[in-house]
Amino acid sequence: GAGVSQSPSNKVTEKGKDVELRCDPISGHTALYWYRQSLGQGLEFLIYFQGNSAPDKSGLPSDRFSAERTGGSVSTLTIQRTQQEDSAVYLCASSFLSAGGRADTQYFGPGTRLTVL
Amino acid sequence: GDSVTQMEGPVTLSEEAFLTINCTYTATGYPSLFWYVQYPGEGLQLLLKATKADDKGSNKGFEATYRKETTSFHLEKGSVQVSDSAVYFCALRNQGGKLIFGQGTELSVKP
């Protein structure tokens, strides 16, 4: 079956521009996560959408970062006024939620490589 | 806060050698533990997991046992192959659902 898909696969932008990154989770997965992978910081959690609950935004590094999830499926991560330190691979993952609301195994997409010049 | 510490890489081994990658964690409560692998040019893939103390996760010849008393989840394989060359990430999942990753260990297996 189809896995998690992300677009674009690569994005090059100029400092100060806004970018939008898209994630299509596995069909039926109600939980969706964003992480980023950078040389200096490793793999960092950004934000977590859990069903209809309020998202956990505790990992967003600044107010320039935001994300939304429309219709409980597709998610968009937006970075405003990009900075060079935002250059990283942005990973999306999705999972089922158990009957008790506990997240199951997360499956990752291929990522979007963002380069800010 | 919760955290994961892995042994630093790169680790270089000859084919058929024994592999251990150490992973220890700090967490409140009873997290689930994972090993993810990232092959060159590919995305993160789940390798194995364990959800409670003394559970052993296994896949593709790799094993790891959830040791609550030593807060460890070391990855082992008895005989590595060149195709195992990749970066390995240990991770925990706390009650909140997000994964907390170690810094990754690069493994290079030479023929």
Describe this structure in words.
Chain A is mainly β and 117 residues long. Helix content of chain A is 0%, strand content 47%. Chain A has strands at residues 5-7, 10-13, 19-24, 31-38, 42-50, 65-69, 75-79, 88-95, 107-108, 112-116. Chain A is globular. Chain A starts with a strand and ends with a strand. By secondary structure, chain B is mostly beta strands. In chain B, 0% of the residues lie in helices and 51% in strands. Chain B is built from no helices and 12 strands. Chain B has strands spanning 3-6, 11-14, 19-21, 23-26, 32-38, 44-50, 56-59, 62-65, 75-77, 86-93, 99-101, 105-110. In chain B, strands 2, 5, 6, 10, 11 and 12 form a 6-stranded mixed beta sheet that branches. The radius of gyration of chain B is 13 Å and the shape is globular. Chain B starts with a strand and ends with a strand.
Question: Strands, helices and their partners?
Answer:
The complex is a heterodimer of chains A (117) and B (111).
Chain A: E1 5-7, E2 10-13, E3 19-24, E4 31-38, E5 42-50, E6 65-69, E7 75-79, E8 88-95, E9 107-108, E10 112-116
Parallel strand pairs in A: 2-10
Antiparallel strand pairs in A: 1-3, 3-7, 4-5, 4-8, 6-7, 8-9, 8-10
Chain B: E1 3-6, E2 11-14, E3 19-21, E4 23-26, E5 32-38, E6 44-50, E7 56-59, E8 62-65, E9 75-77, E10 86-93, E11 99-101, E12 105-110
Parallel strand pairs in B: 2-12
Antiparallel strand pairs in B: 1-4, 3-9, 5-6, 5-10, 7-8, 8-9, 10-11, 10-12
Summarize the structure.
The complex is a heterodimer of chains A (117) and B (111). Chain A is mainly beta and 117 residues long.
